[in-house]
């Protein structure tokens, strides 16, 4: 089922890529947050998902939200809301597939609903390496000094991967790294300290509340 409030989704002039759809992943249970819906928790006076929308929307031509509960609440932000099918809370790959099923552009970019400081250059940097390496998918890697960490739910993929992912899930697969290993994957490095900050516990939410506004990513 899709929930949508019409008239609120005009494409901004600053859209970077007409061929990119964005999906915000809000389909989890939020177990470590006490089963609350993380995307709807307030950070600096507004829901976390709204922070993600503000940063991702100018980078894409079309935006959707993947959510398995509180769909009416998510629909108030003015974008289509799609639940997983089946709606079994089976993880981010299910959200990827939901996004791919509803993607009408050549590429799909994914970001979680609890990453309020994601890079404003996410799509630009991911697309650069995907195109340069002729890859199927580009994934973000955070870099701090000599330490690098893959950020698997921040990725840009070809929409043509829909059937490949669907077959992987139908055959019992569920691990992102395992699915990535079956593809031609490129990585894009980001050195922004807070670009991939996310919220898994009430304490983490409080810590982000205390960050100064001028220290929350580029």
From TrEMBL:
<keyword id="KW-0342">GTP-binding</keyword>
<protein>
    <recommendedName>
        <fullName>Molybdenum cofactor guanylyltransferase</fullName>
        <ecNumber>2.7.7.77</ecNumber>
    </recommendedName>
</protein>
<dbReference type="GO" id="GO:0005737">
    <property type="term" value="C:cytoplasm"/>
</dbReference>
<keyword id="KW-0460">Magnesium</keyword>
<dbReference type="GO" id="GO:0061603">
    <property type="term" value="F:molybdenum cofactor guanylyltransferase activity"/>
</dbReference>
<feature type="binding site">
    <location>
        <begin position="25"/>
        <end position="27"/>
    </location>
    <ligand>
        <name>GTP</name>
    </ligand>
</feature>
<comment type="similarity">
    <text>Belongs to the MobA family.</text>
</comment>
<dbReference type="GO" id="GO:0046872">
    <property type="term" value="F:metal ion binding"/>
</dbReference>
<keyword id="KW-0547">Nucleotide-binding</keyword>
<feature type="binding site">
    <location>
        <position position="38"/>
    </location>
    <ligand>
        <name>GTP</name>
    </ligand>
</feature>
<dbReference type="InterPro" id="IPR025877">
    <property type="entry name" value="MobA-like_NTP_Trfase"/>
</dbReference>
<dbReference type="InterPro" id="IPR013482">
    <property type="entry name" value="Molybde_CF_guanTrfase"/>
</dbReference>
<keyword id="KW-0479">Metal-binding</keyword>
<keyword id="KW-0963">Cytoplasm</keyword>
<dbReference type="Pfam" id="PF12804">
    <property type="entry name" value="NTP_transf_3"/>
</dbReference>
<feature type="binding site">
    <location>
        <position position="84"/>
    </location>
    <ligand>
        <name>GTP</name>
    </ligand>
</feature>
<keyword id="KW-0548">Nucleotidyltransferase</keyword>
<keyword id="KW-0808">Transferase</keyword>
<feature type="binding site">
    <location>
        <position position="114"/>
    </location>
    <ligand>
        <name>Mg(2+)</name>
    </ligand>
</feature>
<dbReference type="InterPro" id="IPR029044">
    <property type="entry name" value="Nucleotide-diphossugar_trans"/>
</dbReference>
<keyword id="KW-0501">Molybdenum cofactor biosynthesis</keyword>
<dbReference type="GO" id="GO:1902758">
    <property type="term" value="P:bis(molybdopterin guanine dinucleotide)molybdenum biosynthetic process"/>
</dbReference>
<feature type="binding site">
    <location>
        <position position="114"/>
    </location>
    <ligand>
        <name>GTP</name>
    </ligand>
</feature>
<feature type="domain" description="MobA-like NTP transferase">
    <location>
        <begin position="22"/>
        <end position="175"/>
    </location>
</feature>
<feature type="binding site">
    <location>
        <position position="66"/>
    </location>
    <ligand>
        <name>GTP</name>
    </ligand>
</feature>
<dbReference type="GO" id="GO:0005525">
    <property type="term" value="F:GTP binding"/>
</dbReference>
<comment type="function">
    <text>Transfers a GMP moiety from GTP to Mo-molybdopterin (Mo-MPT) cofactor (Moco or molybdenum cofactor) to form Mo-molybdopterin guanine dinucleotide (Mo-MGD) cofactor.</text>
</comment>
<comment type="subunit">
    <text>Monomer.</text>
</comment>
